[in-house]
Amino acid sequence: MTKVIALANQKGGVGKTTTTVNLGIGLVRHGKKVLLVDADAQGNLTDSLGWHEPDNLHKTLATVMGKIITDEPLQKREGILHHAEGIDLLPANIELSAMEVSLVNTMSRETIMRNYLEEVKKDYDYVLIDCMPSLGMVTVNALTAADSVLIPVQAHYLPAKGMSQLLQTISRVKRNTNPDLRIEGVLLTMVDGRTNLSKDISFILRRDFGDKLKVFKTEIPMAVKVAETSAEGKSIYEYDKSGRAAAAYEALTKEVMRNGKQREKHQAGLSR
Ligand SMILES: Nc1ncnc2c1ncn2[C@@H]1O[C@H](COP(=O)(O)OP(=O)(O)OP(=O)(O)O)[C@@H](O)[C@H]1O
């Protein structure tokens, strides 16, 4: 069964795009078939995989969502690009901002992305959706299409208020359009090893939001090489394969795969 994971946090610059790329390519390196969906009109994911001028792309997430809205048939792999490291990408550009506006007056406006993914996800083991830094209609679509949400949090920034808003949106989506939506985990990013702040933040998250809010064991270290990868259009495994950040993203990849297996076992146990 395909697993759809939305990477969301309405605060910008927390490592969503970097994590989408390196978790996605990490999964490919373990033999998984993976589609990345850029759900941000800034097109940062598209750019960081080497399509440096997203606004010149003719077919994007906005194109295929538009076709779902008007009930036009999709072409095979319409808009999907293939990256040299073995991963597929549905890109985004500025046209997604217009989609954000037009969704407001669309019937079943929360389920357009889910309906699109129903058509393409059977070709993949994982679909990762890189959300934009807002909790608008496109992000609600991503949360409605997802099985789980992975929440990257910058370790040196206390996210309490933003986290409450995000958790409220997740609860609203669960109540209205996606009752099975789970939280995959909170991922601490840009961790500076010289401080204990990430431990404090893990503690505060658990204290304020309860044990249900799982925090990944893996933490992503702050590393200049990570910041350099996006200009290169490569993953951290290609750019700095023996560095600490590559090891951390590999550990995260294994943790995500392990979580998936545990859940499958649990569900199999329940249905017996
Ligand atoms: N572990 C890291 N160490 C150092 N720099 C990092 C790390 N992770 C991400 N960065 C850099 O921090 C910036 C923000 O990261 P990223 O684009 O992944 O965040 P984002 O949450 O997707 O941002 P946006 O909200 O704008 O989409 C980028 O310049 C990125 O290269």
TrEMBL record:
Q: Which InterPro entries match?
A: AAA_dom, DNA_Partitioning_ATPase, P-loop_NTPase
What's one Pfam family the UniProt record gives for this protein? AAA_31
Domain of life assignment: Bacteria
Reactions it catalyzes? ATP + H2O = ADP + phosphate + H(+)
UniProt xrefs under CDD domains: ParAB_family (cd02042)
Q: Where is the AAA domain?
A: 2-183
What's this protein's family per the entry?
Belongs to the ParA family.
Subunit composition? Dimerizes in the presence of ATP but not ADP; ATP-binding is required for double-stranded (ds)DNA-binding. Interacts with DnaA.
* PANTHER family associated with the record: COBYRINIC ACID AC-DIAMIDE SYNTHASE (PTHR13696:SF99), P-LOOP CONTAINING NUCLEOSIDE TRIPHOSPHATE HYDROLASE (PTHR13696)
Protein name, per record: Sporulation initiation inhibitor protein Soj
| Annotated organism of origin | Christensenella minuta
